[in-house]
Every structure is written in structure tokens, then in C-alpha cells.
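Q: I have six molecules that I believe assemble together. Could you output C-alpha cells for the complex as a whole instead of separate predictions?
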Amino acid sequence: MEHTPSKDILNGNTADVYFMRTLDILKAEGINPVVTMELFPNRHGVLCGVNEALGLLKTVLPASDSEVWALEEGEAMESKEVILRIKAPYQSFALYETALCGMLAHGSGWATAARACVEAAGNIPVISFGARHVHPNVAAIMDYSAIIGGCKACSSILGAVMTQTAPSGTMPHSLILVMGDTVRATIAFDKHIPESIGRVALVDTFKDEAEESLRVAEALGKRLGSIRLDTPAERGGVTVDLVKEVRARLDLAGYNWVKIFVSGGLDVERIKLFISAGAPVDGFGVGSFISGARPIDFTADIHEIDGRPIAKRGRIPGVTKNPRLKRVL
Amino acid sequence: MEHTPSKDILNGNTADVYFMRTLDILKAEGINPVVTMELFPNRHGVLCGVNEALGLLKTVLPASDSEVWALEEGEAMESKEVILRIKAPYQSFALYETALCGMLAHGSGWATAARACVEAAGNIPVISFGARHVHPNVAAIMDYSAIIGGCKACSSILGAVMTQTAPSGTMPHSLILVMGDTVRATIAFDKHIPESIGRVALVDTFKDEAEESLRVAEALGKRLGSIRLDTPAERGGVTVDLVKEVRARLDLAGYNWVKIFVSGGLDVERIKLFISAGAPVDGFGVGSFISGARPIDFTADIHEIDGRPIAKRGRIPGVTKNPRLKRVL
Amino acid sequence: MEHTPSKDILNGNTADVYFMRTLDILKAEGINPVVTMELFPNRHGVLCGVNEALGLLKTVLPASDSEVWALEEGEAMESKEVILRIKAPYQSFALYETALCGMLAHGSGWATAARACVEAAGNIPVISFGARHVHPNVAAIMDYSAIIGGCKACSSILGAVMTQTAPSGTMPHSLILVMGDTVRATIAFDKHIPESIGRVALVDTFKDEAEESLRVAEALGKRLGSIRLDTPAERGGVTVDLVKEVRARLDLAGYNWVKIFVSGGLDVERIKLFISAGAPVDGFGVGSFISGARPIDFTADIHEIDGRPIAKRGRIPGVTKNPRLKRVL
Amino acid sequence: MEHTPSKDILNGNTADVYFMRTLDILKAEGINPVVTMELFPNRHGVLCGVNEALGLLKTVLPASDSEVWALEEGEAMESKEVILRIKAPYQSFALYETALCGMLAHGSGWATAARACVEAAGNIPVISFGARHVHPNVAAIMDYSAIIGGCKACSSILGAVMTQTAPSGTMPHSLILVMGDTVRATIAFDKHIPESIGRVALVDTFKDEAEESLRVAEALGKRLGSIRLDTPAERGGVTVDLVKEVRARLDLAGYNWVKIFVSGGLDVERIKLFISAGAPVDGFGVGSFISGARPIDFTADIHEIDGRPIAKRGRIPGVTKNPRLKRVL
Amino acid sequence: MEHTPSKDILNGNTADVYFMRTLDILKAEGINPVVTMELFPNRHGVLCGVNEALGLLKTVLPASDSEVWALEEGEAMESKEVILRIKAPYQSFALYETALCGMLAHGSGWATAARACVEAAGNIPVISFGARHVHPNVAAIMDYSAIIGGCKACSSILGAVMTQTAPSGTMPHSLILVMGDTVRATIAFDKHIPESIGRVALVDTFKDEAEESLRVAEALGKRLGSIRLDTPAERGGVTVDLVKEVRARLDLAGYNWVKIFVSGGLDVERIKLFISAGAPVDGFGVGSFISGARPIDFTADIHEIDGRPIAKRGRIPGVTKNPRLKRVL
Amino acid sequence: MEHTPSKDILNGNTADVYFMRTLDILKAEGINPVVTMELFPNRHGVLCGVNEALGLLKTVLPASDSEVWALEEGEAMESKEVILRIKAPYQSFALYETALCGMLAHGSGWATAARACVEAAGNIPVISFGARHVHPNVAAIMDYSAIIGGCKACSSILGAVMTQTAPSGTMPHSLILVMGDTVRATIAFDKHIPESIGRVALVDTFKDEAEESLRVAEALGKRLGSIRLDTPAERGGVTVDLVKEVRARLDLAGYNWVKIFVSGGLDVERIKLFISAGAPVDGFGVGSFISGARPIDFTADIHEIDGRPIAKRGRIPGVTKNPRLKRVL
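A: Yes, here they are, computed for all six components at once.
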């Protein structure tokens, strides 16, 4: 998809104020050399946000005198590896260092956490459920990043639009509470929601999860796709044994087509635990482990000015070699 | 200031898709009870984002049949303490649970981290420098939250606008690199930038910090406000002893009015180290410790429906007492 | 109560064989001095088993030339503190060192573990439930020791007889499984079991604990004394929040007289957790933490022979002073 | 050997009282289905006590309508592996769940600890010396379990009878103290004790162990089988170097046939230390590491009633497959 | 006492070669400013070696134009505290920086370790026994430093001469081995060694320590001053209980005037253990804990040249204030 | 080289006083058997000091009736391995046990630490710089030991003489401070110091290390051999990145022949860090890690007297086999 920069980004409102001042000074002094700037992350992970960054650069860099080299969205990157190199007249992009770093930082943090879950889960799909744990201004970008990291779907509507996926989600506890009974809510869902959307019953609201699973399976029969286990921590959370028991009781009652979806406090360690214990899970819903992932800080360094190698103390002057970079502008 | 919800939030695009479906089902079934929902954080901290949440609720709740109770922006909150209670017809706000939780989660995470730095720093001001480490869509909200948490200023222009503070920042290494010399860059800054903005020279770009500090002090004399130490990790970072030495050398040369501002990899532990060692720091610039703070997850639970106590398994039915809550709508 | 030694103990069958041989040699050599032997534990704890030990000594020591000094059953003892001193012709008791140490070791181990639970539980009664985790030959002695340690009751019939307490217990899961429903089992219990025995319903067999609690309360009304929570580890065990929720739901439905009894994997740490979190528990059932307690090893040392101080290498010759000892024989 | 249940076990006196009540209720209600119960341990180890359990079941189960499946005494078992399955009319065995679990728990705990020592000791025999650290009611069963676990002999007379082994033991410190000299005691032992029993001199009572070893070797010559080192902790315990030194001094003096037996505070780690350091030990005497081993808790679960799969919450309904089980009744 | 520098020190042979070259260059260039040099340790401790350092400075500094300020031998010093300040024409002392630092480093390391033992031992005297663990060239200086640190005596003859104390020592194991018996060796010692020297018998060579103690006490009676326990690690070392037992056995036999001296692997932790356990020790002999103490590194920095403050990077220019310094030259 | 014992060693002044007394007693009693004494270290390492020990033995042992067996200087030795065996009339060497152990202890401690650095550094040379951290009486012996351990050179003049190496060293900070500028000092060095000695400029005194490196390279051109980085801890010490950056900046400016020498707080871990990170270091200068190494304690035991095996308690009587020993006297 196309990432187009917002007005606030373009006019520099989201920038650190000192870049605005730097631009004022350089213009007043009439200084505008061709500068080579390199960006690198402070830890290894999955690169995400580079498409949005390129969208911004495309808009602001002059057609001539500009080169941009980058890794691709979703590629693995090493700590300190240069993943973006910009060579252009400095006044054209001085104002955007803050935004460029920020896009990469947040996106790569989310994609990296998602990738770790996806790898832990092996063949079992992981869905991003964390929209509720980040500000709505970035909820869709978080879900986009999670899908870049390998998630099969996400719960936010705008995230699904950005990634051209079907938004994923079952029903909230509130629907069941408001309707007063899990079976009643599931039947209403089945009645009013288009056929194309899977019937997934949430089974921990009122009754024992195993008992409720059997009740909804009996009510919907072959129309029931999955049940979702989301037992809260106050009740011990979803355990490996609970999944095995619900699977066994569903099978014993003949409902072997009903899948089991697990959510609630999942992280890489918990997913690994389910996998290594052989719990018959058909899907994992991961929330704040992905959405709350720490951004990966990026640094932007000048390495050449008008063709001369230069660097601040602590860095190596001159262009840093990285054969993985491809010219994109 | 006024927080007005964006179009994407209002039309439900940033919501988890299952709330949209829930709304469809309830409308189809004609169910719309008055529901009491309570929100609480999963760990203690500083509440932030509640003003934005109230801005959204004001827009969507019906004038009658609605009550909202809340703690105030910036107040301390305990883990699991109810900080927002909404009593209203359920269809009016069902769609906004995702956004409400997200606003509180991100804002409170940032404000809590900022508060920890501010408390560690005692009387010495802390400035939020982390805009470059978050997506530009939330950079200003991050800086707003940092200031709610106690920071004296922030570096993003929009964050400064939101908080009606003067944006803070010195000069980037890139200005010095492009101009080729720290003294030259500082003189240009002094020449072109309004008097109202303090002259802060960044002194670790080309030469030894102590040597460069004396050079810029000699060049600007009484017009120099501060120097900023930002030594990179590759060179050992800013140490307690470096601050003491630069202070001593400045004083020995007669520049006792020049303040010392420290930045680079600061966190609560590092700030405490500077304070306990008696380093003569006049200001701390904190970046990713605040901007990369983990959001504080919030949970929204239904506790009453049409006046009857109810709750899902694991939660206590009925309204939760909290005398600190004040009615705000 | 009176502890009388069994035939196997009296004829030396339970002794280490070398004591039998020692007796043979001493008799053959005609050696039988008056020996002072002292027993001490290798760690601090609660003394238990001394009454049984005295029962044995009373039976075997000659009326004249014998003195026995001891602490009392249930007293605290320090590591290495002499808690029993025997002065008598050596042939009369040489054969019983193994049995005397063993009675004290096992009994004191159990009583010490029980005391730790009782102290952690404060005012809330602790019941010994561990008979199933020790050999039936010592189940009653284990329960006796638990009560010496401070437990209010025990579950084994013979343990209750030994301690002249009412045996305590609710109903096993097997009764409910065999009868097919918790309510049905509880009603049958109420119908056939004497009035003097409290009605305690076990509520985690088939349905959600909170739901089942309300069902049995509705069925028995004021006749229901308590419910017991014994949720298995596979379902997350009994949590603090589960107790609070069941209490709240019972109270909300008007069953405030129904007490809550907790069991399942309890130890000192878990009991402290319930207490410190303010969980409304009315009784704790402790099993293998008490019954599986490590015995406290006792050592028996000779310190005088015919009035002369003596000791093996590593020990101090002569009688060890301990003003807490009282002469009992 | 044959394990016959005691009267207290058979009449239910050692049972948890609620099984007695369960039996009363079921009889009153006329309920007696054929129930399949399975027993499994909560950790892996060596199964012991199953012969005694089968002895009890043989006595109480009806000839028809009963099946029992089990692993064999001494077999390794996994955590949660079903090691005993009983299918019979429930009233016939309801009363014995406590006793069955207790026999298995204590026996398997002891056998498992013994096995660990035996494996650590490699080819060097391990003797069970812990009778003095358990109640005399179970001392023989403890020694029986130790031998099932791999010990070559035990010190209690009754334990030796149960296992048809020769009871093992040297002489106590008390014999030496009463006789006043190690050499004198050893000569008396040699004079009065049958030839078939090995002469093992305990050498740490009065003098340096090396000096005493040479004295007893000189006194008994070829009649001396072994010396036993049992240095108390107050004197640093038996060290690897002490064993090597005593061996060297014995050999230097020509007593190379005298074996060295080590005891005192031995556990798996200490045995491994002696083995890995090449200490010339000819036998290990292990006491409280085996006798104080924590029982292995067993759980008994109903999985079928009259052929229908059933289970309490947290367990899987239906018979658990285990091809290692053999039908024994 | 007077410390006079050796010829090798005075002619610069023990110096780092670059100081010799520095002197050559400065002489060739005719540069010889008055320089203020300060020395400080890199950790806190007890200052020792300063008298020897002053002896060297007295020899080499010119009478005029020189000032020396110092703390006193044996004073406590803080980490980084200036403990010696030299102001003199630089050529006069440039060559001795290596030697001055070295004298202070080794001496202060030993004195600091000794002080820690002395403080742990409270009223009980500590003797320095470590001469055998350092090169004989510094054995006497090590013992001198130990006495500055608080030891009451030392074992090396030259160390005793330097400190004007009586050299301390009992007898080596070799005397006893060569004479074949502890009692015989002790009697020979008593016969040939002057009355003024205490009779201390070493009692762990051939026999059990308690037995040997009684034998030498019987042989020398009131002439025996002490016994020394030095049990090797192979036999478990000297334990608290061994000291208590030997004391008890000596007292029981009427030899209450005989003192107990402990040595062998002592360090601060072991001394504290003896003290806190109330072991009746009358003296501690400490070897490699003192003699093997890590030297305390000292740094020598120039802070003024011809009255102008100066310092290398990382240090503060100008004289460092320390009111504890006293002018000594 | 020849190690000849000093007068103080020969006349016994550095001995523990009890050896002097032992000699007095043995002479008075006329006892002088041929004794076999063995020395072994208490931990593994590199043997050093044995040549000096042999020098002493050669001087004192009688020509006949004496044998000495030893490992060679610089050989690896195991913990408790006999590395020196002396068989001679006891009076001839009784007085020297203290000195012999001390020579081996200190020397082997230093050589062992040096070997560890040398092994960590691989092909890169290590220079001993620690003379300033030990007493000048042993500075040369420390440097000798470091070279036995594998160092390529040392800084003390006398150490270089002992090892027939060229003393190594650059220039001290004090030369630069006194001359006021690094370039001026380096030029003076180049002017006055013989051609045969390498020009190594110390570059952290006044200016940024990278800047200063370029200045001295420009001043001396091809005559400059190396620069030395010795950044103090107050400025973050020498980091891997600093070395890489200085290398890159030197190369970029065309000074690729200039080597980089690193010093300051180096130990095995730091050296490994530089090596594993690929820092382009050409030499390591190690100070207190080598010079402050703990001496390796040696024990001297008598194992034979006049051909009869003997030993004190805790040791094995008779000569200990060690085929690695070679007869040297």
C-alpha cells in the first residue's frame, strides 16, 4: 500500500524544534551541501516503517542530486546495520530526521515482537489483538507492523484495511454480558453476522469453559467454527491442561470440528509452553506483548558532506559498506 | 487544552472489529440497556489520557441517562484501581472501548516513566527528548504525557503547542558537521536565532568536550547559556567525572555562568547516579526511557446492567467503590 | 493419651541390628554400667514424639537406678538442644536407641511443619489433610503430630481417636462423580449424615466454582455450613481472586453465612499469600506440606559412664546443662 | 514376600473420615456402580508399595466384576503416568483410597532416593542406615523400599527379614564408649559374634582415625574385614582425603585386605564427590537422605462409571492409555 | 624506624624506563619547572609505606623549593583521597614515581587486610604468619605492614626487627616429624629455648588434637603456655566445635591455664565465624589472607606547574583540597 | 640468568623465627637425619621462581647426600602437584623453607596471571606495565615472572636487565604536561632518544584521542611508530569503538603504518573483549592485573626421614610419584 505523509509531518510540526532552527540557520547562511546520512537500529530485529519513510522522502527530496538506498520492509536487520542511506541536499530533508527515525522505531519494535511470536507458534496462526493497548492514532500502524512481522490477521478495522486482510475477532465479553447468556449471544451472532465471518464463541464469561464449550457446540452444531478460551488471571488464566481437557471433552461429545483459539496474556514464553506441551491450540491471539513492544531506537548519522568523509566523534567517517542495501530512489 | 476526537476514531475505524459487530447485533436485536462500565490499569502509575477520553465521551454520550466518573489527569493511580466509570446506554459507547483503553494506555505509560525521572532528578529540570523514538502520529501526545508526568519542556514543536510550553532543544550534531566547526555553528546560531531562545552549545562533535566547552565560552562570553554533553557510548558516554571536570575547567577559566546540560542514554538509574555522586548537572534530557515506556494496559469491565450487578467470571459483580472518583459528566 | 510400645519395638525387631549385637557382647562380657545418654535434634522445631518415647522407657527401664529428664510434647526446641536425658543401666535401654530417635524424628518433623502453617494462618483454623500421603502405619501418628503442632483437626479416623478430636472432612470428588451432580450429592449427605457433622459442599467437580456454590446454597439454605474450594492445578488452582469472587457472589445472593474452606497444594507461602491479600478464607486444609515434612534427625550421645564424664570425638564430655529439662521418671 | 493388610487398615481406621461417610451415603442410597479409578504420581521416580497395595486389593475386591492393572514393584515411572488401575464395584474399595495412596507415596519416595544413591555409587554397594530417622512403625518398610531401590542391605532387623537379606551394621559408638577402647571393643565383638558376620571396626570414637585403623588392624590381623569412617561434622566429617590417607597408611603397614566403609551425612552429591575424586571407598552407608526422602504424592481419579467416561474438572474423561500396565487381578 | 632507600631505587633501576627517558629529554631541553604532584589510592584502606616514601623523598628533593604534605602511616584513607602531595623541581623526583607508588601500593594492601582481620577478631590478638607466601625480598615489609595494620606480632625475624617486636612462632610440623613425637619435641623445645619465649605446642601432627593436647599438658604442666590447632583442610580444618571440645577436655583434666591458638586458612569470614560462635580462641595466626592481599593501586597526577593549575584529561586542574594532610618536609 | 641469594636470605633473617629455633633444638639434640621434603602449589598455574630456589639450594646443600628434583621454570603445574623435591640432611636447609615457598609463591602468581593475558591476546604482544603497583624490592622479579609467563617485554629497567630484553615504554603523561603539548613532547622525544627506541606517542593527555593521533602523525610522519590509548576511567576508558575509530581516521588520513597500543585497566576479560570484537589493537600494556595477582601458596611437606615414609596427619607418607620431575642437583 501507499504511505502518504500527513500535513503535520510535512510542515515539520512533529519534528524536534532544533531541526527547524537548523534549517533557519542554514538558509540564513546559504549553506546547503549534499549530505550522506545513514540510519541504523540499536538492536537487531525486523525492519518495518521503511515504506512509510520512503513515502515521505519521495515527497520531499529533489528529483536530481538525490539517492536513497534501503533494505526492504520486513527484512531482518542486525544491530548497528545501516538500513537506510540518504544522499541529498541537506536542506531538503533536515527537517524530517525526527519523523523518519520515529516511523522506523515504532514499526520495527512491533514487527520484531510479532515475528518472535510467529516463530514460537510454528504452523499455528497468530492474530494481533493489541489495538486496545496503544493510542488510536497508531493502532492501525501497530496492526500493520504486526502483519509485516508475520501475524495472519489483526483486530482493528483500519489495520485490516491497511493490510488488505479480513479483520479478525470473535465477540467481546460485553456482548455476552449484555445478552445474558453465552449460547444466546452466539445464536444472535450467527443470525445477524454475514456467513463469510467465522463463528467463534467466547466461552469463559459465565460458566465453566468446558461446560460452555459443549453448550455452544450443541446449539450451533456444524455452524460453530471455534471456541475461544480467554480465562482471566484471577481464575488462573488459560492453562495447557485446560486446552487439552476442552479438546478431549469436545471430541468425546463428537464435536471434533470445533477449533480452539487461545488468548489472554500470551507472550513468546507462554506460546512456547503451549507448543512444547503439545496443547491442541488452533490459533493464538496476542495483545500487549506485540502492541507494548519497546520501539527500536534508530540513529541518523552524517558520514559524507559534498563527497568528503566526515563523522562526529565516536563514529567512523565515510560511507558504511552494506551490500544488502538496494537503491530505491 | 481541548482534546477533540479524530474522524477515524469517531466512525469506529480504529476499533477492534468485534465491537462493530456487537453494535450490529444489538441494534438488530433492539437491545440497548444502561450499562455501567469501569476501567482500571494493570499496574500503578500516573494517569494520563483521561482528558482525551473525556473529550471522546462528551462527543458520543447522550445528554440524559449518562454519568461519567473519573480521576484527574496526572493523578497517581494504584494497580487495579477504577479510574473511569461510564454509565450510559450501551449502544452509545460500545464502539469506543478500544480507543478509550488505548488513549489511557499509551499516555499513562509515558507519564509514569517521566514521573520516575523527575522524582529521581529532584530539583533539576528534566526535558523530554524522545520524539524521534516514536511514530510521528503520537510524538506530540508522548511529549504532552511527559509534561503531565513532570517534565519542564519537550523537544517536539506540536508537543510544545499542546502543552503551551516553549519547545526545548539545542542544536543537532548535523548543524555542527555541516558547518564544520562547533564554534562557527554556535556563532551562527547566536546570530540568526531570536534572543528569547537560550544559547546551548553541543560540545562533543569534533573535539574533546572540555576543550570545546572552553572554546565556545570564549567565543560567546556572557551570551552562552549552557553547554550540552552528549558523548556517545562508543566514547564511554557522559560520566559523572566528565561533568565535574568540565565544570571545574569552566570555573577555572572564569565561565561560572555557563550551565551544563546532560543527555544520552539517561534513565532513572543513571539520573540517580549523577544526583548521588553530586555531579553539577543543570538539566537532564531524557529520550527513549520515556518515549519507549511500556503502555499500561487498561481493562474495561461491565459491572451493572440496568441497575443489576453483574460481572464476567473472575470479576466482582456490582459497582466498585472508589471515593477518589469525581463525577465529570 | 497413653502411648504403649508395640511388640515389634519391645523385642527389638525395629532396631538397627548392631544394637542387638552390642547387647549380646555386653551380656557376654558382663558389662552393664549406668550410662547417661542425651538426645538432641539437628535443627530447631517443635518437639513431638517424646510422650511415645517416655511410654517406651517406662516399660523397659528398671525402677531403681534410672532417671529420665525431658522437655514436654509440643515445646519449641533449639538446634542441638538436649531434649531427653536418660540415666540408667545401659543394658536396659541399649536396644531402643533406634526406636527412640525414630519416634522423635518423624513426630517432630510433622509437628514443626504444622506449626509453621498454623502461625502463617493466624486466627484461621488449619486442618491436617495429609493422611493419604504417608504410609497407613503412621497416618494416625502424623495426624497426632499435626495437632500437637497446632492444627485444629485432622481427617484420619485413628488420628482423631488419638487426639480425642472430631475427624474432619467434607466429601470426596468421587462421591459427587458417582452421584453425578454436586447438588444431589450434597442433599444425600445432608439426609444421611448425623446433624452434628457440618455440611461442607465441594464445589469444583463439574461446574464453575461460583455457579456451583450458588446452586448448593440454594439447595440447602441455612443448613449449608461451608463450601470447599479445591480447584486442581490444571485449572490454575485456588487463587486469591477466586475466593474473593465466590465470597462476593455468595453475599450478593444473600448467603453470607456460608463459610469458605480452601485446600489443594497449600504450604506456608501460599497461606501467607492468602492472608496478606485479605482473601476471606474461613479454613485451610493442608496435606503434603505437613505429611511430607522431612523428619528432624536426632542424635543420641553417651556423656557419662558410671559418673565419669566421657564423649566420643567431636562431642563434649559430661552432662550438658539445660535448665528447661524436667525430670519425668 | 507377602504383604498382608493390618486390621486398622482393613476396618478403615486409617482412612480419611469422608470415605467412611461416602460409604454410608452410597449404602443408604443403594448406589454401587462399577468404577474405574486410576492412580498416578506427581513426579517421576521408582514405584514401590504396589505389592502391598495389591495385597490389600486382593483381600477386599469381589472375585467377579473386578480388574486390576499395575506396573511392577521397582519399575521406573513418569510423572503423571497411570501406575495402577482398579475397575470394581465402588463400595468394595471406596474406603481404601487413603491407604493405597499412602503405601505408594511413602514407599516410592524412599525407593526413589535409594535409587539415586545407588546410581551415583556405581559398582560400590550402598547400605540403608536410616531406620533411626523414621518412626519404628515404618522403619522396616523404609528399609524394604531402599532395597527395592537398589541398596544391597539394611540395618533394621525387620527390614532384613522382609527382604530376606542379612542385616548390616558394624558397632555403635556406644559399645566402644562403654568398653572404653576401640581395640578392646573390636576384640570382644570378634570373640562373641558369629563368624558369618563381618568384623567392621568403627575407628573415630577416641583417637585419630588413621591411628585407630592401624591399631585394630594390628589387633585382629586377617580377621578384620573393614574399618568404618564416620567422623562427625564437628570434626569436619569424612573427607575424600581422609579416605585416601587411611587407605595409604593401611597399605603401607601391609593391611591391604582391610576395606573402608564410609558413613555420616552422605547424599547423592557427596557420593558423587567421593566417586569422582577417586576415593578408595568400599561401601557407603546412607541414612537420612533415603529415610527422610519426601513421599511422592499419588492422586486417585475416577475415569469411568459403569462404562461411561467421566472425570472431574481438570482431568480427561475415560480410561488413560498406558501399554506398560499389566493385568494383575 | 628509619627507612633508607636502596641503591637500586636511588639510581632508578627499579623505575619504569620511560621516566629515565623523560629525565633525559627534560635535561636536554633544559626544562625543570616546579611541579605539584598528588598521589591517591584507587580504593579505601589503611595507608602504609608513606614513611618509606618520605625516606626516599628526603634523600632526593632539594632543600629549597620543596614541600611535601602527607597523611600518617597507619591512617585510614578514602578512595581517591590525596594522601601525598609533592611540590618540587620536577627533575629532582621524576625518576621515583614508580618506586613511590609501589611502596604505597604493596604496604597499604597488606596493612588494609591486616586491619580487617584485627577488627574482626575484637580483643583477641592476631599474628602475621604469611612470610612464606611472599618473596623474601618483601617478607619483612609485609610483616611491618601487618603490624601497622594492627597485628600484635609477626613470624619473620627481619619483620620483627623492623617493628621492634618479639618474633612470634611455635614450632613447625617438621620439628615434630623429625623428632618423631609431639611430646618429645615439646620437651626439647622447653629444654633448649630461652625462658622468655612462650611454650606453644603444635598438636595436629600425629594424633587426634584433643588427645595430643592432653599429652603435652601432662608433660609440661604449668610450663605449657598454649597449644596451637592447625588441622589441615584434608582433615576438615580447624572447626569451631574442635576448639570448644579441646577447651572442654583441657578444662575437665584441670589444664585451664593452657591457651588455644588457631591457624590455618584463616580470613576475615572465618575469624568472624569463630568470634560469633563463641569459640574460646586465645589467638589467631593469619597467613595468606594478609600476605596475599591485593596491592592498592596508587595514581600520581600533576596538578600544578610553576603555580598554574593543570591536569590531564579526566582530572581536575589545581591543587586538591585535603585538610587532613600535614606538611612533613 | 643466575639468581644468587641475598645475605638476608642466607643468614635466615627473612625466615619464620620458628625455623631458627628448630635449628637450635636439633643442633642441641644432635639430630640431623636425611629428610625428603616436597613442595606443591595450592592451585594450578605456571611455575616461576624455581630457578631462584635452586640458586639458594645450590648454595646451602652439602655436595654429598643431597638430591633435588624439579619442574622447569615456566612449566604448567597442576594443583597439589609436587614441583620440587629436596632430599638432604635436614639441618642444611631447615632454615630456608620460608624463602623457598615465598620465591615460588610470588613468582608463580605473577607468571600465571601473565600467561592468562598472553593466551587471551593470541598473536598480539602483551607488555608488563605493573612495576608501579608493587614494592620496588620485587618490581624486577615481577617483570621477570611476567616474561616467563609470556609477556614480550616489561617496563622496569632492572626487569629488562634480568630478562635480557629491551625495556618497553612510551612516555608518561607528566612529560606531556610539563612540556605543555603532546606534539611538542613527541618531537622532543624524537630528537633526544636513540633511534633504536620506537616512537610511541601517548595521545589522551590534552585533546581528543583521534584528533591528537592525527596531529602527532602529521608531525612525525614515517618516524612515528605507534600511538598509545590510555583514556582514564573518568572518560569512559579505552573502548573497542575508540580503537576502531582512531584506526579508521588514521587510515583515512593516510597514516596506515601507525600502530595502536592500548593500556589502562586491562585484564583477561577486557583483552578477550577487544579480541572478540575485532578491535585493531597492535599491543596490550597490562599493569595491575599481573602485578597484583595473588601469590600461589606453596606447601612444603616432609615425606621421608632416613628412608622411612612418614607424613603429618592429612598427608600421605612416602615419596609422591611425579614422572615430570627431573633431577637438577
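A: One point stands out. The longest helix of chain E spans residues 97-121.
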